[in-house]
Write a structure and sequence with these properties.
Elements (H helix, E strand, L loop, with lengths): L16 E7 L5 E7 L1 H10 L3 E4 L4 E4 L8 E8 L6 E7 L19
Parallel strand pairs: 1-6
Antiparallel strand pairs: 1-2, 3-4, 5-6
Length: 109
């Protein structure tokens, strides 16, 4: 990944783009987080997902404390260049901070 060319993306007024994280093996949508230009570069350079925390105002490597790392297999961007789709090999129990495999485990009935 480190030799990848990062395209010109349309970041929002806070310098962020949404990043949808998907399991490359079964297509499950694992989570949605936000990246800025630096966290995207960190992701490309290391091969593991890094995000910008809007609440904590700092960078975070997914799984750094839990061990539930996300190994990046592919990064796509949409037709408007304002959203990322990151396909990963999910390690550990899952992507959600609650311990669930995916953040999308609840339904509106």
């Amino acid at each position: 990944m480190s030799s990848a060319t990062i395209p010109k993306l349309k970041y929002d007024d806070k310098g962020l783009v949404p990043a949808i994280v998907q399991d490359i093996e079964n297509g499950d949508v694992l989570m949605l987080a936000y990246m800025n230009e630096t966290s995207l570069k960190m992701t490309v350079e290391t091969g593991f997902t890094h995000f910008w925390s809007r609440s904590r105002q700092k960078y975070w490597k997914k799984g750094e404390t839990s061990g539930c790392l996300q190994k990046v297999r592919e990064i796509c961007y949409d037709c408007d260049s304002d959203t990322l789709l990151i396909k990963v090999k999910q390690h550990g129990a899952g992507a959600c901070h609650t311990g669930a495999r995916t953040c999308f485990y609840r339904k509106i009935e």
